[in-house]
């Protein structure tokens, strides 16, 4: 092989490598615990002039479907967040409002906030309540799992006492550092991730 031909091959290979598009980097966004996923996907864009959209003879349109509508309200301090969808109500309370540092003992402010949630559960006539605990990613994963479960248990105990309703069943879980809702690389994000969420079906209008 001549030197000139080898140089041409090298240039061709380098050009092909430069023109080959790189695969997009994969970024994992915040995820949600089981049972919290939306029930409807966003609609796709449709071209109304597309001739392929004509219905075949004798075909009919499917029934209308109501998409999920989510309303999110967060207090000015960021200590409490409420999410309402067509199907569920979710309250998220930051751990610092409920507990001391690295503790599952409820603080003085906790009772009033949990009682307000119990009142909403009664208003919605809900009989199934989920109480999930979460931590940030500091410390060991095992410690976060145990602490988040203990905190969820503490909140559930107050809810059970306030509701005093034997027909209400609870699902209590500690997810530790799983399912973050903010960036764990900053203290502001970690503070949001240290939380207890209480969710229940929306049954009253």
TrEMBL record:
Kindly list the organism's lineage: Bacteria, Bacillati, Actinomycetota, Actinomycetes, Kitasatosporales
List the residue ranges of the region (Disordered).
20-55, 181-205
What keywords are assigned to this protein?
Cell outer membrane, Membrane, Signal
List the residue ranges forming a coiled coil, or say none. none
Pfam short name (any one) = OmpA
For this entry, the protein name equals: OmpA family protein
Which coarse location class describes where this protein primarily resides? membrane
Signal peptide region: 1-27
Q: What InterPro entries has UniProt attached to this entry?
A: Bact_OuterMem_StrucFunc, OMP_bac, OmpA-like, OmpA-like_sf
State where the protein is found. Answer: Cell outer membrane
Composition-biased stretches (Low complexity): 20-30, 37-46
Domain spans labelled OmpA-like = 86-204
């Amino acid at each position: 092989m001549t030197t000139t031909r080898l140089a041409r091959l090298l240039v061709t290979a380098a050009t092909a490598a430069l023109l080959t598009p790189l695969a997009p980097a994969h970024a994992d966004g915040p995820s949600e615990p089981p049972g919290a996923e939306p029930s409807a996907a966003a609609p796709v864009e449709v071209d109304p002039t597309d001739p392929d959209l004509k219905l075949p003879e004798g075909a009919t349109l499917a029934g209308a479907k109501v998409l999920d509508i989510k309303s999110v309200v967060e207090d000015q301090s960021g200590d409490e967040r409420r999410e309402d969808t067509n199907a569920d109500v979710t309250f998220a309370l930051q751990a610092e409002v409920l507990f001391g540092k690295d503790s599952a003992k409820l603080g003085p402010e906790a009772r009033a906030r949990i009682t307000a949630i119990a009142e909403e559960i009664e208003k919605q006539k809900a009989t199934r309540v989920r109480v999930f605990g979460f931590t940030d990613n500091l410390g060991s994963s095992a410690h976060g799992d145990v602490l988040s479960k203990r905190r969820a248990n503490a909140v559930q105990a107050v809810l059970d006492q306030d509701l005093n309703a034997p027909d209400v069943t609870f699902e209590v879980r500690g997810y530790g550092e799983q399912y973050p809702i903010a960036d764990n690389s900053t203290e502001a994000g970690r503070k949001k991730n240290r939380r207890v969420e209480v969710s229940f079906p929306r049954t009253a209008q």
